[in-house]
Design goal:
By secondary structure, this protein is mainly α. It has 2 domains: 381 residues, no CATH class; 125 residues. Helices cover 61% and strands 5% of the residues. It has 22 helices and 5 strands. The chain has a 5-stranded mixed β-sheet. Helix 1 packs antiparallel against helix 4, helix 4 packs parallel to helix 7 and helix 9 runs antiparallel to helix 15. It is elongated, with a radius of gyration of 25 Å.
């Protein structure tokens, strides 16, 4: 007779196998350097901050930054490639954990080979979904978000299925550290509270929830990294969080709060259409139908668990939908993980219906359904294969090619800014140049940071009437042009009356000849 310990060892072995398969695909398709693909323009900022132990853009992402710093020290490829590896490992581990999540839901009632095959197929279907795969091959925080979301679900389910209190304590620590990576993980909390509510009298005694809360707060201490990092004045130091005001500006993402629920009403129909297509392409339309069918099956078996997934997924989806940026759909990765659980339940339901007719039909249905991950792999390979993508890496260095020694480069958009931060601060290219982001001059902390970073620059303070960041760019160029060459990477059309420029380089960069 097969013991439960043997079942557990088998499941862990399969989980490792699934992880290895996903990781192998991710490594083959991994970007070799800095990339802007898959809305990854923030990668240069994140990598430069991690490599120099600095503070990236709000919310600071301390958990990601520290892990990325560890990976950036690997003796492999470019610095960007090393940090891209972090995403690949996080996504692959999430896939392996997902297998264990599905086994926790299926076992011990169904520990058959067929059930295990379905769990493995569901995990690989998630692995090769377009959204997770896209984030597994670039430097971004969302593969780590998926790993924490899957880990939290696994720990919570293990405790709910009769596991010891240590499972819930571990979930508290994981939640704290996970919030140090991405704050949207907070939507897990009300869903988990609903799922655990029936246990409040029987198992959730103070000796259980107090250590859980304590470990949650311990995990949140990762945010102490931000003022500690800012204290050594790194080149990437958003908000300069050495003071409480600066710390809260970063952690609360004050700069981006206007985006939350800021989607204009006129854009709602367009986003609905785009998101419908996005959902359909994750597992294929048949896979989405299977997931919805599986959700119905889970509803019949465990309504509280189904409501838990609806609360968590619904809160994430509503927040992401109305967040007014073009890449907010990436927040949906925990939702895709929950949908993949529905996919597995749907496959089991289809096989049960097929078995009622004949065993042959069941076997045919099983083979057909298990081929779906291969279809997803083939369908999404081309779009997610970045192994030859050097375009963004090359872009940064070509921007610097024609620049004269000891120049000032004024940048505007995220892509040129973060590409140059990566090349100069992380890889050490052209340490003689000063890089200043024009729009960020509107912030007092940034002007102070530029003065500290480049003490030879003339960085004036606005005086008199309200002044825009465009005016500050004009003044910066005018004040420094007598002493050093000044370049613009992406000037606004409105600046044509201010600056006389000449275009240089294979990637256009504009040298300022005169300022009016």
């Amino acid at each position: 007779m097969t013991t439960r310990a043997q079942h557990t060892r088998t499941d862990w072995g399969i989980a490792l196998g699934v992880t290895a398969i996903a990781l192998a695909v991710y490594l083959v398709t991994l970007a070799p350097g800095l990339t802007f693909a898959h809305n990854g323009s923030d990668g240069g900022d994140l990598i430069a901050a991690a490599y120099t132990l600095g503070v990236p853009h709000p919310t600071g992402y301390p958990t990601y930054t520290l892990l990325a710093w560890l990976f950036s020290r690997l003796p492999l490829g470019t610095i960007a490639y090393r940090v891209n590896l972090l995403s690949a490992f996080c996504a692959a581990l999430a896939v392996g954990l997902f297998y264990l999540v599905d086994r926790t839901l299926a076992a011990p009632d169904d520990a058959s080979r067929t059930s295990r095959a379905i769990s493995a197929a569901a995990a690989l279907t998630l692995a090769f979904s377009s959204l997770l795969w896209s984030q597994a091959v670039i430097s971004e925080v969302y593969a780590l978000l998926t790993l924490f979301a899957t880990l939290l679900l696994w720990l919570l389910l293990r405790w709910r299925r009769g596991g010891g209190d240590g499972w819930l304590w571990a979930a508290g620590l994981a939640l704290g550290l996970g919030l140090g990576n991405h704050i949207t993980l907070i939507f897990f909390v009300p869903a988990a509270a609903y799922l655990l509510w029936p246990e409040r009298d029987r198992r959730l005694r103070p000796r259980v929830w107090l250590p859980t809360l304590g470990l949650l707060l311990s995990g949140l201490l990762v945010y102490a990294y931000l003022p500690l990092a800012a204290a050594h004045r790194p080149p990437v130091n958003w908000g300069d969080p050495r003071t409480w005001k600066g710390f809260w500006w970063v952690v609360s993402a004050k700069q981006y709060q206007g985006f939350a629920f800021g989607l204009p009403t006129v854009q709602v129909p367009n986003r609905l259409g785009n998101w419908a297509l996005l959902l359909g392409e994750q597992f294929g339309w048949w896979g989405l139908v299977l997931a919805l069918f599986g959700g119905r099956q889970v509803w019949q078996q465990d309504r509280r668990l189904t409501k838990f997934t609806l609360i968590w997924g619904g809160l994430v989806a509503v927040y992401a939908f109305f967040y007014d940026t073009g890449d907010s759909y990436v927040y949906l990765l925990p939702v895709m993980m929950l949908l993949a659980l529905g996919w597995a339940a749907g496959v089991r339901g289809i096989l049960t219906l097929a078995a009622q007719r004949s065993r042959t039909r069941q076997q045919i249905a099983l083979i057909a359904l298990l081929l779906l991950p291969l279809g997803s792999l083939a369908l999404h390979w081309q779009a997610n294969d970045l192994h030859g993508d050097w375009s963004s890496h090359t872009y940064a260095y070509r921007l610097l090619e024609p620049v004269a020694p000891d120049s000032l480069i004024i940048v505007r958009g995220d892509e040129p800014t973060f590409a140059l931060w990566y090349a100069v601060y992380a890889e050490g290219a052209r340490p003689d140049v000063a890089i200043v982001n024009g729009p960020m001059l509107a912030f007092i902390w940034y002007r102070e940071h530029v003065r500290h970073l480049y003490p030879d620059l003339v960085v004036g303070e606005p005086t008199g009437l309200p002044i825009t960041w465009d005016d500050l760019v004009h003044n910066l160029a005018a004040d420094n042009l007598p002493y050093r060459p000044v370049y613009l990477t992406d000037p606004k059309e409105e600046w044509a009356d201010w600056f006389e420029t000449s275009e240089e380089g294979r990637v256009p960069i504009y040298r300022v000849e005169a300022v009016h």
